[in-house]
Specification:
The chain is an alpha/beta fold and about 260 residues long. The chain has a single domain, classed as P-loop containing nucleotide triphosphate hydrolases (Rossmann fold). It has twelve helices and eight strands. Strands 3-4-2-5-1-6-7-8 form an eight-stranded mixed β-sheet, sandwiched between helices. Bound molecules: adenosine-5'-diphosphate and magnesium ion.
């Protein structure tokens, strides 16, 4: 039975898509390549592009609208499995209005979740019906942030949404922690900001991952080549970071 994880923060540019994509690869490497599934719930379709999915085929948008079954939209990319996103996801709040709309993803995943070890959901930079669907379907959330004031500021609001979903839609959901991304240990500002992120973590009753994902050009280069960082540059420091992060993640969820 798959463990379902949403990578979520309504702030854009903090690394949700990069982390979703590389977390999938890292977890598979630690897990003898057992099958995972990535789901792209963002209209920007970052991980759909990075995983070289065919973007002309039906998407998660069609599944959420009940126009097609979830089995029909899963693409095997040779590397992993992905359900592509769609630009139409920006319309989702308008087109989904029926009672139970928060449960659409959860209901669809019930049918396929025994086929995968991990299902990792990349979410949009909004607290919308798509993110509520992600939270309702998930066992865990992972919150990426950068060590700056603006990125961390929205976490309180995300927590309120998390608590509402926990109360009304998904009692069992838990937070794995906050992971600091694009970290630059050289600057004193970054160190001060870490203290701030630690405080926020305490306020929302979680912890900050010990591993900080440092800022490396190789991460962007790997993305441009549409390859995960582990395969792109196996001996790079960025791979050490991601390996430590994945190990910490797996320990936290105890699987
Ligand atoms: N560790 C990192 N080092 C350098 N650049 C990074 C790192 N993580 C993410 N990025 C870059 O930061 C930008 C935003 O990341 P992205 O994953 O798209 O964020 P989000 O999905 O939260 O909007 C992208 O250009 C990505 O390549
Ligand atoms: Mg993204």
């Amino acid at each position: 039975m798959a463990t379902i994880v949403s990578v979520i923060n309504q702030k854009g540019g903090v690394g949700k898509s990069t982390i979703s994509f590389n977390l999938d690869a890292g977890v598979r490497k630690q897990n003898n390549n057992k099958k995972n599934l990535l789901i792209d719930l963002d209209s920007q379709c970052s991980i759909t592009m990075t995983s070289k999915a065919n973007m002309t085929l039906p998407t998660i948008y069609d599944v959420l609208r009940k126009e097609i079954t979830i089995e029909q939209v899963i693409q095997d990319t040779n590397d992993t499995n992905i359900i592509p996103g769609s630009q139409n996801l920006v319309e989702l709040d308008k087109v989904l209005s029926e009672t139970g709309k928060e449960y659409r993803l959860k209901e669809s995943l019930e049918k396929i979740k025994d086929k995968y070890e991990y299902i990792i959901i990349d979410t949009p930079p909004t607290l919308s019906v798509a993110s509520i669907n992600a939270l309702t379907a998930s066992d865990y959330i992972l919150i990426p942030t950068m060590a700056d004031t603006y990125s961390a500021a929205g976490i309180g609001q995300l927590y309120q949404t998390f608590l509402a979903v926990k109360k009304y839609c998904n009692e069992k959901i838990q937070i794995t922690g906050i992971v600091v991304n694009r970290f630059n240990p050289q600057t004193t500002l970054a160190k001060q900001m870490l203290t701030m992120v630690e405080d926020i973590a305490k306020q929302i009753d979680t912890t900050v991952f010990d591993t900080k994902l440092r800022d490396y050009t190789a991460i962007k280069e790997a993305q441009a080549s549409r390859i995960n960082i582990f395969d792109y540059s196996p001996t790079h420091n960025a791979v050490d970071d991601y390996t430590n992060f994945v190990n910490e993640f797996l320990k936290k969820i105890n699987k």
